[in-house]
Queue: 3 jobs
Job 1
Amino acid sequence: MSSKENGAKMVTSNATRKKASCRCRVTEGRGRVFFNGVPVELIPIEVVRLKVMEPLLLLGKERWSTIDAYINVMGGGIMGQAEAARVALARALVKFVQDPELENLYKSYDRYMLAGDPRRTESEKWMRYSARRWRQKSYR
């Protein structure tokens, strides 16, 4: 979904990963990226910070410095939130830039960056302790 407010272009996108759901809004700006209201540079866990910044690093600094991104994530664990933010940001950037080369770059780098990861938790079965674990047999 894209719209123009006061002459400025804005694009929004959604993504999910496991139990985490994310909304991302990309507008014209000065290269700022906020993750749940916090600048992405201040995220204390380095793996999460790099996972969220991956689409921007592939985009390039000269194009990245002209946009602002606001990412809101709810639910799930920290890595599920990071992956959901990564997918939502990549989708929003593809819509915002409207460059087929960027879309092909993201697809060739990692297919799940635009498609999302379809894996989910397997449900627990009847008379079992977990999804696959069965009661141990005793042969005495």
Job 2
Amino acid sequence: MLRFERPTKPTLGLLEIYGAMGVALLVTARFVPLARLPFWGCALRKHTGIPCLSCGMTRSFDWFMQGRLLDSLLVNPLGFTLAALSVVGAAYLVLWKLRPPRLRVELSVRAGSWVRWSALVLIAANWGYLITRALLSRS
């Protein structure tokens, strides 16, 4: 069941905590050149040529914050999605005192299981995309 609820008083919940984490990630991606650090990189990709699940995530966040949305999406779709969700969480954090309505989701056991399996499939599909892109760029 989905419904919107407005809290009676401003409360710090998971959404605001995730919003704060999102703000930290987005600010870091925008102002700290992590990809230029000498030790930065993917050890799995370096040794096997196969990208890990988070390969390109830093670049995706960085390009998202530069406004290069299509590039961000193409380098790592999961990174683009997380960056976009970070913006939503940051908006909730900024509007915290105004008590924005919250979406309350109550799932049955079966629906919850379906959502978890769907998330795993999407994560696996993202990794498959990264591997395919890496293999195609070699040839």
Job 3
Amino acid sequence: MENKEQFKCISPNTGEAFDTWTQTSVSEFSSALERLNDKSFIELSKASNRASALLLLSNAIEKAREEFEELIVAEVGKTQSEAKAEIDYAKSFLIYMSDLLSSANFKEEIEDGRWINTVPLGLGLLITPYNDPLAGITRKIANCIGSGAGAIIKPPELGIKTASKLEEVIGLEKLDHLMCFLKTKDREIIKQLMHSREIGVISFTGSTEVGKILSINAGSGLKRFVGELGGINPFIIFSDADIEKAVTDLVIRKTKAAGQACSAQNILFLEKDIANDVIEKIESKFFEIESLPTDKYASALMGPIRTKKALEDLYSFEERLNQSGARCIINKNQKLVGDGFFYNPAAYLCEEPDLFMEHEIFAPLLGICVFDDRKSLKKLLHNNQQPLVLYAYSQDHTFLNQFITSLNYGSIGLNNTGIQGAQAPTGGFKEAGLGREGGAWGLSEFTTTINVKEVFS
């Protein structure tokens, strides 16, 4: 019997191991890959079968809801309310795609004797993020299975136990001939897999640095690459905005999952006339929020940073901010509870936003920059090299729509931060990503066409 090495799962709530995991063996994965290649395309050739499989998985997740909630809290430190919400969010991708398949047209006659078949590119290799350890998987599964292809899921090491529970659920529902998991630390295996003839699409959510490497590897094998990468997301409050709503939305968005979300804002741009008022309101709300161990405090409003290294990197970034002349203006007493990786919300005021426009923070630290020239601000936003999400608040509807013209961000929230949903495409421009996830747009990333022309004599 193969002697598998065990790796520790460290909880950010305690800083200690709460479980272990083992890597998928080569023989296990080879068998699963062969099963997917032999069976998934046949069973998923009918859209109705794809829809049924996705609904079956959604229902199975619901049955195991409590176990998933506990794992999400323990493994990534989300609050208990955030964990509950993630279950619903994860299911929404499966349910939406199932509904979409009922009306999707995969065979279209475009003229007499000519039709276009829409078919899967091949098996999908889905490399998923830790910050949404369940929903980050199901949003990719929905696209892949919806296209008619089997899915190979490479879960993150920091979300491995949640993924393992999903793997167990998939096995119990006898769906493991459509979806399999590759749990590994070995990057060489991933590289080799990307070049295998069975793989048609590589879908990745994570950092721009890693995304670039994967994109190059995918391109060398002429594989389609879909990447939702790091984002530098500005949040703008203009002087005529509904300040109470803007501040409330900003604080919720920045502290959700302790700021560890691709769509969390990096920097707040405040129009000069309202700057002092807004900063006071942010300070008041930040001081109400404390980073707590979410496995012990059911009412916690915010949990910990995921890893010790991420926390250390955050402190290093603060040093860079101080050296640059930025000034810490909001910093709740960092007398923290427990031995986990805790950090209370903080904000730095900077005259020049350069550091915040170059470094994705991924934590509850907010940059604030005051402006008085809207044209200069728009030029700065246009030059952003990682334009994933933009938020802008003003009660002048005409102005807002004029302002965002020519600003290419993957998602734009106007007086709202609820930009995401199973029905909507997400992704970025430039170094923030390539391709889209969500809705019919996400489905199309996994497909291509066959042009069929028939002539009768």
